Amino acid sequence: MSDPWTLHPDRALPADPTTRGIAREIYAATRDLPIVSMHGHVPVEWFAQDSSFGDPAQLFVVPDHYLTRMLVSQGETLPRLGVGSTDTEQVETDPREIWRRFCAGWRHFRGTPTRYWLEHALVEIFGVTQRPSAETADAIYDQVAARIAEPGFRPRALLDEFNIEVIATTDAAWASLEDHRRLAKDGYGDRVLPTFRPDPLLHVDRATWRDEIALLARAADHEVDSYDDYLTALRAQRRAFVEAGARATDHGHLAADTAPLDDVEARRIFDAALAGTVTAAEAEAFSGHMLFQMAAMSTEDGLVMQLHPGVLRNHATAPFAAFGPDKGYDIPVVTEFTRSLRPLLDAFGHHPGFTMIAFTVDEDVYSRELAPLAGVYPALRLGAPWWFLDAPDAMRRFREAATETAGFSNMSGFVDDTRAFCSIPARHDLARRIDAGYLGRLVAEHRLDLDEAAETAVDLAYRLPQAAYPAPR
Amino acid sequence: MSDPWTLHPDRALPADPTTRGIAREIYAATRDLPIVSMHGHVPVEWFAQDSSFGDPAQLFVVPDHYLTRMLVSQGETLPRLGVGSTDTEQVETDPREIWRRFCAGWRHFRGTPTRYWLEHALVEIFGVTQRPSAETADAIYDQVAARIAEPGFRPRALLDEFNIEVIATTDAAWASLEDHRRLAKDGYGDRVLPTFRPDPLLHVDRATWRDEIALLARAADHEVDSYDDYLTALRAQRRAFVEAGARATDHGHLAADTAPLDDVEARRIFDAALAGTVTAAEAEAFSGHMLFQMAAMSTEDGLVMQLHPGVLRNHATAPFAAFGPDKGYDIPVVTEFTRSLRPLLDAFGHHPGFTMIAFTVDEDVYSRELAPLAGVYPALRLGAPWWFLDAPDAMRRFREAATETAGFSNMSGFVDDTRAFCSIPARHDLARRIDAGYLGRLVAEHRLDLDEAAETAVDLAYRLPQAAYPAPR
Amino acid sequence: MSDPWTLHPDRALPADPTTRGIAREIYAATRDLPIVSMHGHVPVEWFAQDSSFGDPAQLFVVPDHYLTRMLVSQGETLPRLGVGSTDTEQVETDPREIWRRFCAGWRHFRGTPTRYWLEHALVEIFGVTQRPSAETADAIYDQVAARIAEPGFRPRALLDEFNIEVIATTDAAWASLEDHRRLAKDGYGDRVLPTFRPDPLLHVDRATWRDEIALLARAADHEVDSYDDYLTALRAQRRAFVEAGARATDHGHLAADTAPLDDVEARRIFDAALAGTVTAAEAEAFSGHMLFQMAAMSTEDGLVMQLHPGVLRNHATAPFAAFGPDKGYDIPVVTEFTRSLRPLLDAFGHHPGFTMIAFTVDEDVYSRELAPLAGVYPALRLGAPWWFLDAPDAMRRFREAATETAGFSNMSGFVDDTRAFCSIPARHDLARRIDAGYLGRLVAEHRLDLDEAAETAVDLAYRLPQAAYPAPR
């Protein structure tokens, strides 16, 4: 291994010296740009309360399902990694033990973006100089713990250290937005933005649905006894989000279906759901209908519509029962866009001011469906490679598969979708490097001039995410 | 930007110097070969009438849906780009205004093949030396307009200038072939060939179907009152195409289904269609049945069968109503070949003299379905990457995905499918460069010897398209 | 061409000199490792009888459907290549004639792995120094024939010459295992292992099913008159395989469905099958049910479960009738894993000691389904690229698509699936070169350190296949 552990300045740039030289020039144009992080899962409380991150295990291991799933696949268990459970297995409470298990499994992350992000964070943010392993675990733990304990190592300070110009959180549709109001009062109103996420309210056959409806009614201060009440309450909450600075809504449906129902049928299904007699097929049709309604509301209130479809959640029964959602058992499925988005795009695809950003974890649709759609409908932008595809080679494949049909101007630019706060600088930096490499190849192949490539790199890193998420009028 | 604007001799060759050096040698073997353009959409009238191309907007912008769709996706409208409409919006009639809008949007084409082709045509054919932009639009307009106005800048002269040995047009099945006869009289009979395109006749539930049947009946001089009449008339028109020099038929169905019906059922559906009572499911079954019949007729008359499935046409309702088809709203869908082609290949896949060429806009099927099928059935050849996939990186992916299973001998070689006449040299040149790069890599990796690679490059550019579209016996 | 014909020491390594230099270092760590060949189709009789391979046509051409399909696609016929038939066409019996036809078609293999493997075998094993062609066919024939006739050129001796540490055969579930016992007696018990392949027994609507059941009953020495008998007999035969050294079962279903039936329904379908009244839908449901049962039995006896789904067998009717299965007419179809494997993984995916290895010929599922599944379920390993995908560029794509989500530790390492014995060294060597190239790129891009890359290369070539196929307890 390199001795001591360092980050090479050319990491993730193409190996070919010609292309690398060009890529270096392009990367120089974006390296120091502020971070625009328009979608993610960092809890708003962190910024509102601005409290300490706890210990290395709480910061890096326990909440990161990218990381825990890999260790589970190699024989670890979630409780031994500190993940709380309703199960009988004892949950590890010693953060140092958890950290040791993580470091002992370091080799399993080879070739993954988790490895790349962690390496970046440990070296850049924490100054670690030795590769994690069973042998080095304790020393690294102490080093990371000491940094975390520093008074300046707080969420708000890190916004500056990480050069984050703006960051969006993801919030329940019925959220009080109290934390965002506190942030606004403290001068962070333009810097930490809420995002309206109504998924559980749109899936009328979920066990939690009626509880969610009650929460919505309370938040909107409007009884929800009918479909029309429901639309009214949703509209009211969207408006509250707009007032709190939101730029976007976010939708994580299984399919991308957007076929609207007529009002009579929508009311009928809603009433059946209230009565507890809704069928799975009705619920599925209703969720597609509601995506259409969300788009319609976006044309009213200007919220950008983010669609993240195609993931079958909680694939394994027992881990879901024991540990809850978001523990690594979410697996993509084939996702269709051409026919599914047709009703929505036919209705709103040329609407001025409406923006829909489509993400996918199904690479097949890049060249076949999403790039052709984004390449003609003014309202549609192609999101950045998402989740499992937010990785160096996958990002390169995205550029190669989508650009020739959609161009760059129909894309969202980089969007990070991060849960692990300390990985944000690594992710943005990596995306900038991959884009520099891709653009560098276009220049090396004389398909683009260098000045165009550098300008495009700045678009992808900074200007396009700003343009894709405009402030509502 | 490079100053002045020029085409680099190594453009679209691999960046790595080792591979580029080899690729240059391979490309030298194909660079000056004549163009064999066996499929496309250049109107036959252009060659028959040999008249002027009008103005820069008419030549480059208005008829090119690759180009207009990108500008539409960025907020332009088709009427402002000169595209005629039944809509109320005023259609721009000043070609210079249209040209300015195109040049102002030049940046949106970065990374697309449209950019690559346009750059090639503007520099090579028109001698343009500055990059298009709002600032340079007028000067480029004047330069292009002057060249278009030259007496020698006529379709037939360009066949020589572009080194086009043979070009096929695409013609309605009921076409009179008058233009092709005139071309034959003028000595262009072996150089401009018709192609038999019966799609609207095979989809019995389209609004226009009965009009099409009437046109067929008139062209074939045979009343079409029954399924048997219909087959007779189709057969007669195919024969007329063969006599006019046609090499192939072309089929643009939504699915690749080729399951035959029995005669009783085929007759029943046909009669229902005449009576206006056919269902969508019946029409779909009938269209698959007719692909099977088209293959059967090909075994009789020797016309090569081209299949271009998998595109959902006219995705947006309002633009279709206002502007008609082929305006950029055609979006690919998942396409299945293994089961769909089975009836046809089972019946005719080993028939001597039958050739089917399968194209796709669904990259997923290259390695999974089409290459395995083409790698065993003597009748099947794998067409070149089509439409959205006729692009540098997509062509490279095609070679990488299909060659290992199908080899080179089971491919059609390059087929351009062009509507924009001036892009033909650019497209063939680009394909030769990409193939040189791919073959150069095989040589650099010692998987092929240089003499084999050069011979294969000539196959792909010239011999295979000739062999794939033989003259009917 | 290179003169004389030789194998370049850097073949199949990346062209870029920087990456090639690193890849050479990594390849040096695996080049001389023994071969662990845990799945394949070399007949066990060859090793049991240790007899001569006959002639060059019998060794290289007649049994290799990769090779014959390509020649058929170019107009040869199977009988002219010596493939026996029930058809009227005369079967070529002169091996020299067959060999000439193969050599005359050598150019059609350009760019295919068959070409790469054959070149490796002809040069390395047979010392051939000229490229095959119509002109060189006879001389090469004589050279190969002479080597085959050498007393030392026998299967067991070649195990040493090829450095094969262990090789698995594939055996019918009702096999007597006589040959394996003879091998054990001769000291080859740990070197040539059987594999339990029950496919024809699990598809209850196949014409041969009742014959297969009779063979199972005889082998297990247990009457099979009911579903419970059937499970008992299967269990007994699995145990016999374990005792004969088997490590794994192998399953070649069309779909990956693993949904279990309840016992009543399973018994009912089984009885219907015995009575000859089973429907296609029942048979399909039963085959999925039996995959679940096979997994359950694996948790009892420790046999690793290999799943090879997604191939539609015998696509063309006439060749199947005339020549039987495995003649090149097996074509992949879309294959779904996320929902299909859910019942099995939900039940056994965390079972200690259970291992399932999933292979695919549908590249789309790498990043979308198989890597996410293998990246969390401890029981699941991702198999090596299979069949059409066991090729240089396809192997590279597999690494690039799967590693970022699954890492290396969740993979089987290289598994060759070979029918053509002499290609085994070529295949393993090629896989090691491709992995060295991929890992070399990660090092060149500073995403991995060189020591980690070399260790990982050894994992993929040697340690992981051993670990993925542990001896049952």
- Helix and strand composition category of chain A: alpha/beta
Q: CATH homologous superfamily of the largest domain in chain A, by name?
A: Metal-dependent hydrolases
Stretches with pLDDT under 50, minimum 5 residues of chain A: none
Distance, first to last CA of chain A: 54 Å
Mean pLDDT metric of chain A = 96
Gyration radius of chain A (Cα, Å) is 23 Å
Query: Per CATH, which architecture of the largest domain in chain A?
Result: Alpha-Beta Barrel
- According to CATH, the fold-level topology of the largest domain in chain A is TIM Barrel
Oligomer state of the chains in this structure: homotrimer
* Helix coverage percent of chain A: 40-55%
| Number of beta-strand segments of chain A | 11
- Looking at the structure, what is the overall shape of chain A? globular
The total number of structural domains of chain A is 2
- Biggest interface pair, counts: A-C, 52 and 47 residues
InterPro entries (chains A, B, C): Metal_Hydrolase, Uronate_isomerase
Pathway (chains A, B, C): Carbohydrate metabolism; pentose and glucuronate interconversion
GO molecular function, one term (chains A, B, C): isomerase activity
Organism (chains A, B, C): Isoptericola halotolerans
Sequence-ordered SSE layout with sheet pairings:
The structure is a homotrimer of 473-residue chains.
Chain A: H1 17-28, E1 35-37, H2 44-49, H3 56-61, H4 65-73, H5 95-104, H6 113-125, H7 137-149, H8 155-161, E2 164-168, E3 171-172, H9 178-185, E4 192-193, E5 196-197, H10 199-202, H11 209-220, H12 227-243, E6 248-251, H13 263-275, H14 280-301, E7 304-307, E8 311-312, H15 317-323, E9 331-332, H16 342-348, E10 356-358, H17 365-374, E11 380-382, H18 392-406, H19 424-444, H20 450-468
Parallel strand pairs in A: 1-2, 2-4, 3-5, 6-7, 7-10, 10-11
Antiparallel strand pairs in A: 8-9
InterPro entries (chains A, B, C): Metal_Hydrolase, Uronate_isomerase
Pfam families (chains A, B, C): UxaC (PF02614)
Catalytic activity (chains A, B, C): D-glucuronate = D-fructuronate
